[in-house]
Amino acid sequence: MKLPLVELHLHIEGTLEPELLFELAARNAVTLPWASLAELRAQYDFTDLQSFLNLYYRALDVLRERIDFTDLTRAYLARARTAGVRHAEIFFDPQAHTSRGVPLHTALAGVRDALDGAVKDWGISTKLIVTFLRDRPAAEALQILREILAGGVPIDGIGLDSAEVGYPPELFTEVFALARAHGLRLVAHAGEEGPPDYVWQALDLLGVERVDHGIRSLEDEALLDRLVRDRIPLTVCPFSNVRLRVIDTLADHPIVRMLDRGLLVCVNSDDPAYFGGYIDDNLAALDTEFGLGPDRLALLARNGIEASFLTLGEKAALAAEVDAWRSLQP
Ligand code: HPA
Ligand code: ZN
After folding, report:
1. Is residue 108 helix, strand or coil?
2. In angstroms, rounded to a whole number, what is the distance separating the alpha carbons of residues 68 and 304?
3. Could you tell me the distance, in angstroms and rounded to a whole number, from the CA of residue 10 to the centre of ligand 2?
4. 289 counts as catalytic
5. Of the residues 164, 192, 219, 289, which is catalytic?
6. Under 8 Å CB-to-CB from 135, ≥6 apart: which residues?
7. Structural domains in the chain plus CATH codes
8. Ligand 1 atom closest to Cα of 11?
9. Buried (b) or exposed (e) across 252-262, using 16+ Cβ within 10 A?
10. Distance CA 273, CA 15 (A)
């Protein structure tokens, strides 16, 4: 039996593996700046978030047709299944596609097509969270949100991602207020490269229910008190933190300190095609590095369940499966 996992911080565009990228380039007659898989992989040496984003936005230019978005999402779900993922709340960046001429509906409906078959095909329930690029104007995000609300493709929530420093959450207050008024769930990246003040803003101005990354919250004791008191989840992504140089090495990662501080943290893969592995790889590496053992692995899995937007009944059912897994471990 695999440890049943919930994944809450996963950019679907960040699951684009080099092999599929080359296949889609050939299918869509897109000329790539890289001559081979090896030449593409040689670009995966990032110095910070922006250096990664430059490649991430460049690579997704191969996604052109509705079926491309479906194939991308299906490939993730197939891999997630082998990791033991039972529920995934997936981020999708509409502006990364509309800004290069792909219609909103083409991209969004392509992802939705794959999610609609996810329970049947892989035993994975899903939610779809549209993330807005904070380094583009809030007015553009508002326009796209209005289009989505008026259109026929259902989503479950909104989030905020892309280059963080210089783009504080407060810029998006109106966008999040509109989403809330329509019953959407609210999350935001904050405290990845940006200061703890951005986490406060995400909580108090945007009203987010969950913070993505949030790792720099460790610099602010009052913020930690708030996160612990209100059981605000942080979706932590260890491989991402190391590859984007937020943390020097995995051995320096504060995940255990965060657990010990009483924070509701869970482990996620962020952009697994770029950062060296999927959610199971992240957990296995942490287990090796810190000797987490079955109790803390089960705790991380239970935290993911609690942090999710599943119903209480769904959470209880999955948590019982984690307990069953734990009872089978030494
Ligand atoms: N941070 C911000 N924006 C992103 C990320 C990330 O880790 N991945 C994809 N877009
Ligand atoms: Zn992210």
Report:
1. helix
2. 29
3. 6
4. no
5. 192
6. 162, 163, 166, 167
7. 5-327 (3.20.20.140)
8. 9
9. ebbbeebbebe
10. 5
- Please state, in angstroms and rounded to a whole number, the distance separating the CA atoms of residues 61 and 57: 7
- Ligand 2 centroid–CA 117 distance in Å is 24
Sign of CA dihedral 87, 127, 25, 237: negative
Amino acid at 294: P
Structure tokens at 28: 């869509």
pLDDT at 93: 98
Burial of 44 (0-12, 13-18, 19+ CB in 10 A): middle
The two structure tokens encoding residue 322:
């984690």
pLDDT profile of the chain (330 residues), mean per 10: 97 98 98 97 97 98 98 98 98 98 98 98 98 98 98 96 98 98 98 98 99 98 98 98 98 98 98 98 98 98 99 98 97
Sheet of 264-267, strand order: 5-7, 85-92, 125-133, 157-161, 185-190, 210-213, 233-236, 264-267
- State the amino acid at position 254 in one-letter form: P
Question: Ligand 1 pocket, 98 CB below 6 A?
Answer: no
The pLDDT assigned to 12 comes to 99
State the pLDDT at residue 6.
Answer: 98
Residue recorded with tokens 């008024």 = 181
Residues with CB under 5 A from ligand 2 (ion): 270
152 and 174 Cβ atoms separated by less than 8 Å: no
What is the 243 CA–ligand 2 centroid distance (Å)? 13
Q: Which residue has the tokens 């259902």?
A: 154
In the prediction, which pLDDT does 299 show? 98
Residue type, 188: A
Tell which residue, 155, 216, 212, 205, has the closest CA to residue 187: 212
